[in-house]
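Fold it.
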Amino acid sequence: MDVSMETESMRLLETLLGIPAAERSAWLVDQRVAANVATRVNELLGAEDMLGTFLAEPLAPTLPGHLSAPLPAAGDVFGAWRLVREIGAGAMGVVFLAERADGRYEQRVAIKLMRSLGWSHDAATQADLMRRFDNERRVLARLEHPNIVRILDGGSTPSGSPYLVMEHVAGSSLTDYCDHNRLDVAARVELLAKVCDGVQAAHRRLIVHRDLKPQNVLVDGNAEPRVVDFGIARLLETDEAGSVVATRTVAAAMTPAYASPEQARHEPLTTASDVYSLGVMLYELLVGVRPYELGRLSPAECERVICATEPPSLRKAVAASALDESERRRRTAGIGNDLERIVARALHKDPERRYGSAQALGDDLRRHLEGRPVLAHPDGIGYRFGKFVRRHRFGSAAAMLALVAIVLAAGVAIWQAREARRGADDMRRINGFLLDVLKLSDPFDAGSELTMSQALDGAADSIDERFADRPDLSADIRFGIGYSMLSRYRLEAAEKQLTRALRESETAFGADDSRTLRVLEGIAGLRHEQGRTREAEALFLRALARIEATGQQADPLYVLLLNNLGNLYLMREDYPQSDAYLRRALAESERRQDYAPGDRANIINNLAQSAHGLEDLERADELYRQAQSELEALFPKGSPDLAILLNNRAHLAESLEDDREALALHRQSLAMRQLVFGGDHPMVVTALASVARMSTKLGDASTALSNAEAAAAMADRVYTEPNSRQASVHATLAEVRLASGDIAGAAQALQRAQSLLATVETRRPTVVDYLERVRAALCKDPAAPTKVCARVSAAVPTG
């Protein structure tokens, strides 16, 4: 049985039963649910129509086991109890008022019996509901608190249906009680604080209710609320040390209108989910409506609203409510900033930003009632910015680094300002720029939601206008944005920002200032990506010499330059030079206690690649494993650096003739790169080509061809300057086509590779050798026309 499908069908059925029969079909079509769910819902509707008043009649004899037995009725006796009348019903059970039948003493109780779900003919579904009902018995047996309904007894009816005997709360639901008694805001808040006490008692026993709502809180005549209906409660799991960990729901048993974002996404739950539901209840008590009107929305639409929509403030919601004018004024007068903040914190989308417990929420409510300062505070710019970056976690990585650079640069500029007034003005200007970046990402302002990268690119156009009189600020901002563009391989745009940044930095700080040298390093990296490796080498060496001449070796830029020079020689396949610079970089990084572990791991990765080039395969393998261990600890979900390392390890596996391991590593690297970059990027190109090449070697022609064609097409889109990697990718396409018997296509791809390589300033020997191997293989094929081989052979570059 597909439990999630069955549960979703049941949830839709519950909504449909509240809609006029003539409108049900159209509503279901509007939900755009999966075909199997729609089919199941229609089956359930048909069964419901046939059953009619099934709660009062015996069930169909075809139902399995004891669930086919008729529902007990008023007057029935089992155990020491006689049913008096039905007082409530839910999806799982029917609740009766009952009294002692053995004459020992008088006592009235509430008995909850398992509902016979006549429309659910799936035995597994019924068994699941039976387990949930039994779970409530076990959960309530562990709870004893004045604000939680107590369990008194339990057992099974003569027909086998389980029942639960609870204390009878002679009262009404939380919202009904408040509205019927016309409670003011303070009284409503006080009631909710008591509900928090009951929920906290459950949390202390590691129990999450998971379905908190006003209907599951009964208020008696003494104004004491009692939490009921733990039918879908779940015990929190603990790890070996006894610490609480999240628990995952098996099926979406919940009331969507009160569900937390993580519950709507079917993620593991903690007590923070109950805190969110308490926030929804508090909002409804104060305003009269829930934060979101989910109405007839589809499940996907409900999830989007719950997870991505911010509710109106309490006062705005009251102003727009259907309350009568006097009640509206009374509610508005009782809702101040503290209550707004308390509700906002309880309803935070991020569980870590909510109250840490139901007790903390209740305590803050009592502080408000007593006129003391509350702990809830509104989010600042810093948190909102961080939230945006997390929403675009991988795709915004480079852009986030750019903004971090901007913020750090702003801090340096402010620290150096001689007058406090100028420093404050600098901060306002920088903050204004950052807020514009965030505003550009707002779909209500931009028309559609932009990525952080797109927002940064758009904001770059306003630098001249905002900072024309402050080259010190504009230089730092241009550097941050330009470096982001370089990381995203937008070379032309990066050149515009970085060259301007260099001029402005030299004007503002001087040629030997570390801020100017860091821009110089960025331009050197740009030249490297443009294939202008001689210029790149000269710029790296110039920056390195300036640092050493001015005694700035303590600056982290020094290690970065050593590493990047080593990487440049690595790409040239000048392994002795590369090894020398990388060893210096690693030694420098290990002398600095504050050097980032991730950066050190990247140096080790480059050093491993150098050792591979020097044919010291054992040392290369040892260094790769060390770097991988460090990067996986830092980035368990992957990163661009880890993807590069996996690719390098794959090449080592090829050298060790372990082709299957090599293909597995290349595929792992490709998947990580596609996740990180999400579109066209040189790192995706090389990974696609590597998977294609190894798939050909292992005889998987179809996979090889699709990946090779995708790599070649993407290479032509992303490489705007001559680059040996683009030539290598087209050579891979030629090799794959040759293996599949497409001689003409192979010749065409190889000819393209040769023409591309002819334009490259410095040709990597391994790429030249690769093209020659593909050419030789093509011309050995008996089906290859002599004239095609002659033309291709003549074009093979030799420089």
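The first strand starts at residue 77 and ends at 78.
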